[in-house]
Automatic annotation (TrEMBL):
<keyword id="KW-0237">DNA synthesis</keyword>
<protein>
    <recommendedName>
        <fullName>Thymidine kinase</fullName>
        <ecNumber>2.7.1.21</ecNumber>
    </recommendedName>
</protein>
<feature type="binding site">
    <location>
        <begin position="86"/>
        <end position="89"/>
    </location>
    <ligand>
        <name>ATP</name>
    </ligand>
</feature>
<feature type="binding site">
    <location>
        <begin position="9"/>
        <end position="16"/>
    </location>
    <ligand>
        <name>ATP</name>
    </ligand>
</feature>
<comment type="similarity">
    <text>Belongs to the thymidine kinase family.</text>
</comment>
<dbReference type="GO" id="GO:0016301">
    <property type="term" value="F:kinase activity"/>
</dbReference>
<feature type="active site" description="Proton acceptor">
    <location>
        <position position="87"/>
    </location>
</feature>
<keyword id="KW-0067">ATP-binding</keyword>
<dbReference type="Pfam" id="PF00265">
    <property type="entry name" value="TK"/>
</dbReference>
<feature type="region of interest" description="Disordered">
    <location>
        <begin position="208"/>
        <end position="238"/>
    </location>
</feature>
<keyword id="KW-0547">Nucleotide-binding</keyword>
<dbReference type="InterPro" id="IPR027417">
    <property type="entry name" value="P-loop_NTPase"/>
</dbReference>
<comment type="subunit">
    <text>Homotetramer.</text>
</comment>
<keyword id="KW-0808">Transferase</keyword>
<keyword id="KW-0418">Kinase</keyword>
<keyword id="KW-0963">Cytoplasm</keyword>
<dbReference type="InterPro" id="IPR001267">
    <property type="entry name" value="Thymidine_kinase"/>
</dbReference>
Amino acid sequence: MPELVFFSGTMDCGKSTLALQIEHNRSARGLQGMIYTRDDRAGRGKLSSRLGLVTEAVEAGDDLDFYAHVVGILTAGGRADYVIVDEAQFLAPSQIDQLASVVDDLGLDVFAFGITTDFRSKLFPGSQRLVELADRIEVLQVEALCWCGARATHNARTVGGRMVVEGAQVVIGDVNRPGAEVGYEVLCRRHHRRRMTAAAARAAALSPDVLPVDPATSPPAPNAPAPRDSSDTPQAAP
């Protein structure tokens, strides 16, 4: 039976790489798929991974009707055996419904890849609708790691290395951007809640735990005996 499958995970966990792998495996068996993406790091009409792999894709703008687009291709004599959609979190809920119609009415498998929550830990509308409609949800097994080494579960938006929690839900950026730019970083829940990015952790590590104090100028400890004058020291008898 055809399925609507949602592959979810944080940034930097290999979603686009898996999408490209599925495309490779199926095309190698003589199948032909439709590939869609939205706001890919490589530019419009591209599906790319951080490993350097890239392929052509249809840019899924706000006005794209997935069901009508696939039907139009089939009606014109084209071929579509499956559908791959990357960056599905950016889609409107109505577009997710269209993908479900591609599965149910056209009998095609649809593989959607996306981030579940935004930098505020709130569900993207597209991801929420996928959770509601998908036949199967697959959490990617290649775990992204927080700077502390724990499994990363949350996406953080950064500006100048500092985590921000306000702003538009969609601002295009990527991990490992220069500090002055808008970038993203994956964190474990504990450090996301504390807003502790890698840059913030380094700054905290460089801060001394105590202020340097010159012992000669430091006040005596509480209840410490006052130093005696040398004239009070008993002299040895001649």
